[in-house]
TrEMBL record:
Protein name per the record: Integrase/recombinase XerD
Gene Ontology CC: cytoplasm
InterPro entries: CB, DNA_brk_join_enz, Integrase-like_cat_sf, Integrase_catalytic, Integrase_recombinase_N, Tyrosine_recombinase_XerCD
Domain Tyr recombinase: 103-277
Primary location recorded for the protein, binned into one broad class: cytoplasm
Places the protein is found: Cytoplasm
Boundaries of every Core-binding (CB) domain copy: 7-82
Positions of transmembrane segments: none
Highest rank taxon of the organism: Bacteria
Entry's Gene Ontology molecular function annotations: DNA binding
Amino acid sequence: MNLNELWFLYEADKRILGFSPYTLKAYSLQIKVLTRDIGNLDIEEVSLTLLKEYLAKQSERLKPSSLGHRVRFVRSLFRFAFEEGYVARNPALKLREPKMDKRIPKFLIEEDVIHLKITCESPREHALLEFLYCTGCRVGEVHRLNVEDINWENCSAVVNGKGSKQREVYFTTECKIWLKRYVESREDSCKALFVTESLPTRRMAISTIRYSLKRLAIRGKVKANVYPHRFRHTYACHLLDNGAPLEFIQGMLGHDKASTTQIYAQLRGERRKELYRRYF
């Protein structure tokens, strides 16, 4: 059995387990890179040394976080091969992820958010900005939202997060007003919550959401780099500033591991520093 044949079986197994199409697409790119570099070898020929040489070569052009993705995929692929009995030994067993610096998430200060709000021109811009700002949703979660996922009475929405895990998020009355105004202004029958302004009307792509925010920031002369995930960091920062415990923030953000949320504990001091540098 060669690597491409193993990938076919691995991909089918992960599809059955409910892995998202986006995850599988990312994995398919990784197997292409792997076979391009080491060849479509028989899986019994793949050794730890060969995998380390491949990853060392990849490290010359990748950040530690991206290299970590490569390592996790290779380990997962060969763990599957070993557990299914396709190989007698797991060559990736001793692979370790690179050490990464603890990066403090970048957030928007209140002044930037206000500038973005007053710069909005269309109901869609208002609704999108408010929803990202007060829910902390991932851009993929916003992209997948349908109008029927909104509970208007409860000011909440059910979003589909990573690993097809659902959670309920909440939004403010101001956000509700803009969402309703936006939905009522539409004349299409598309079930998506956020749709394109050009015809034919379809679900707003992730790239279009990013572009809309960039355009909004340029129009509002906001110097900070504005992108969807930055609103997620800002949301967590506001919750922390208002005294919310990390366990609560973990649930609202949909993090599986507490360690993922723990990085936000550094935001309190970092935010004070950011404000000091900005205003002193």
